[in-house]
Amino acid sequence: MSTVYLWKATPEADVEMVQRATRTMLDRLVQESGIELEGTVPLKVHFGEVGNVTFIRPENYDGIIDYLECNGIRSCFMETSALYGGQRYKRELHEKTAIEHGFTRLPLVMADGDRGESFVEIMIDGRHFKSCKIGRAVREHRQMLIVSHFKGHILSGFGGAIKQLSMGCASKGGKLAMHMGVKPRIRNRKCRRCHLCEPRCGENAITIGEKSFIDHERCVGCGACVAICPHRAISIFSLRGAMNAFGLKAFREKLVEYACASQKDLQRIYVNFAMNITRGCDCEPRRMKPLLPDVGVFASTDPVAIDRACFDMIRDRGTKFRGADTFAYAESMGLGSSEYSISEVLVPRDTVQT
Ligand code: SF4
Ligand code: SF4
């Protein structure tokens, strides 16, 4: 059974409360788990794709950074290049996005080099992979804070610590390996030929015309076109598609295997912001509406327990994400435990005025 620390958001909670909560919960987690932070402890983050407005804003990270600074720990923002075209495809664009979205308090380290070429192979014993390509700098840090926005995801069902640890820490080749097998199709009957999807595809795999189609030789299965199509004409499910649903389960298992490789023999602390909870993920360059009021901030040393706790609490509030089979596979791979106990962190408005 793993401990998950939780600060529950309230309608009147502001960003200062979030900062105090994250400071307090990190302090408790570090003390109670006996972790001794030292040297440089990067924050694995996600800056949000350009056009997305529901990613976790940089001021929400300030409580974590303050905590590290107060304890004499150096830090940086750590990211890897996205697989598909867009504003996070390579270092220069990622730096630009980080600045535009206000992530300027810490230096940025691209863990997999300028364009995803820098990685180490980590051996595991998974159903899909025997070795995983993890961004080199991820593996060079014994300690890291994996900070995630918990929300939905078009392929994995939900995205939180496990996805941040896997897709978020993999090099471009690793990301490609995980996406292989998830190839969408265009339903011509539904396609209105609006051409919105074409520029979204960094691989030039989409042809829109009398008979619209996706070239599966070029497609890397990133799912970006599925997310952008306003008419639900692009789908990873099809009538022929038991295989596709099967492919999605395999995709989730691949995420778990990469998460195992990413954290293997290293010390990680996980912080999940269950705020601005949308159906789609922060990679989607569009405005989305939160599905429910903010739940709060979670912290744990166990990536499975923290995601399970977020998943359960959101389900209990009436929103169900796909992907629950992730947890059983993660447990079987030794990534963590889906059994957890909640340790609530209270941060009354009037306690700390620093
Ligand atoms: S976004 Fe959807 S409807 Fe528009 S062209 Fe692409 S597939 Fe067709
Ligand atoms: S066709 Fe769609 S899923 Fe394939 S690479 Fe292009 S945007 Fe990604």
Strand and helix map with partners:
Blueprint: E1 2-8, H1 15-33, E2 43-44, H2 62-70, E3 77-79, H3 91-100, E4 108-110, E5 119-123, E6 131-135, H4 136-139, E7 143-149, E8 151-153, E9 157-159, H5 161-166, H6 172-179, E10 185-186, E11 206-207, E12 213-214, H7 224-228, E13 234-235, H8 242-263, E14 267-274, E15 296-300, H9 303-316, H10 325-332, E16 340-344
Helix pairs in contact: 1-2, 8-10
One iron/sulfur cluster binds next to loops.
Description:
With 354 residues, the protein is α/β, with parallel strands linked by helices. It folds into two domains: 2-178 and 253-344, 3-Layer(aba) Sandwich (Rossmann fold); 183-235, Alpha-Beta Plaits. 30% of the residues lie in helices and 18% in strands. It has helices at 15-33, 62-70, 91-100, 136-139, 161-166, 172-179, 224-228, 242-263, 303-316, 325-332, and strands spanning 2-8, 43-44, 77-79, 108-110, 119-123, 131-135, 143-149, 151-153, 157-159, 185-186, 206-207, 213-214, 234-235, 267-274, 296-300, 340-344. The strands form five sheets. It has an eight-stranded mixed β-sheet, with helices on both faces. The protein has a two-stranded antiparallel ribbon with strand order 5-6. α3 links the parallel β3 (77-79) and β4 (108-110). The radius of gyration is 20 Å and the shape is globular. The structure holds iron/sulfur cluster (2 copies). One iron/sulfur cluster binds at residues 186, 191-197, 208, 212, 229, 231, 233-234.
